[in-house]
Amino acid sequence: MQFDWDDLRIFLAVRRHGNLSAAARDLKVSQPTVGRRLQNLEEVLSARLFERLPDGFVLTAAGDELLPLAEEMGRIADTVHRRQASFADSLRGTVRLSIYELMAQFLTTHLAELSAAVPDVELELSVAHIAANLSRREADLLIRECLPDSPGLISRKLGSFAYAIYGARDYVEHNPEALSEARFSLCKWVGFDDDHTYFAGQKWLRVKLAGRLPSVRSNNGIVLHDAIRKGAGLGILPCFAGDSDPGLRRVTPPLAEVTSTFYLLVHRDLRRSPAVRAVMDAVVELFAAQAPRLMGKSELKALPKKSRHSA
After folding, report:
1. Mind listing the pLDDT tens digit for each residue in 249-299?
2. CA distances from 140 to 85, 127, 135, 185, 241 (A)
3. What does DSSP say about strands 190-192 and 216-218: parallel, antiparallel, or unpaired?
4. What φ, ψ does residue 118 adopt, rounded to 5°?
């Protein structure tokens, strides 16, 4: 009886994670399915591949012998999967972009333009802080600040984001110190939590606060934006988001110390896909067209007089 390639995928997942439950989560199947398929593979090969120990699954001698062969088949299968889209000669299909929430906020603002540029392509936005693995086809395109040290990836520089300090209009009106350097000691602040201070401006803000912590903290940029809009305090936002929000007031010019440069990444095996290339070109053109806005090229507007201020 021949083995099933899917059973080798099970074998590799169990080897990678060391237990059935984690392998099942990775493969998005049930734990009993993982156990059953692994047992099926062992029966086909007439060999026990893992020792079932209390602290996890450990490869046997037979498992060690099978591992490099299974890994090679896995690499070939991943390559075929990645290049699947490049076999087509049409612009139809689905292209998945992996991004985090602030980038999603920017792209969704311009979805109509992107869709018009690639009318026969369906766009899927996967929002997460952890970068998708392009080699395993977890996404087709990846937009990130840093360039991963991973072979096979091709990058295109998209452009830079400027950041400034914003507050709700009512908050700034009732806390005039927000317009001066006293803001760091007298105003309330909204910022990312300790696990996400790597986001633009957060370490800079912590230094400026001289040991104080933002009174509202979150791991999600959209939540922070909303908290600032609701008057929870001042916060750092990308200029494209803050300047377009009528409920916010920018209280500083773009911060010279805080910028982000973003890159568009694709696996080399996918760059020949007509649909992927079309979306890449559309994203690059969008960033070029929006470059002044992304860099906060607008003047600070005077705060409306209270008599004219609308709720």
Report:
1. 999 999 999 988 999 999 887 777 888 889 999 999 999 999 999 999 854
2. 10, 13, 9, 45, 26
3. parallel
4. -130, 70
* Residue whose entry in the numeric block shows the structure tokens 């300790």: 194
Give the pair of three-digit tokens for residue 183. Answer: 């803001």
CATH 1.10.10.10 residue ranges for the chain:
5-83
**Class of domain 87-158+262-292 as given by CATH:** alpha beta
* Beta-sheet pairing, 93-99 with 141-144: parallel
Instruction: Note whether 50 and 63 are within 8 A (CB).
Output: yes
d(CA 28, CA 49): 22
Find all residues with CB under 8 Å of 299, minimum gap 6, and list them: none
Name the CATH architecture for the domain at 161-259+297-306: 3-Layer(aba) Sandwich (3.40)
Model-level pTM? 0.66
Domain 5-83 has CATH 1.10.472.20: no
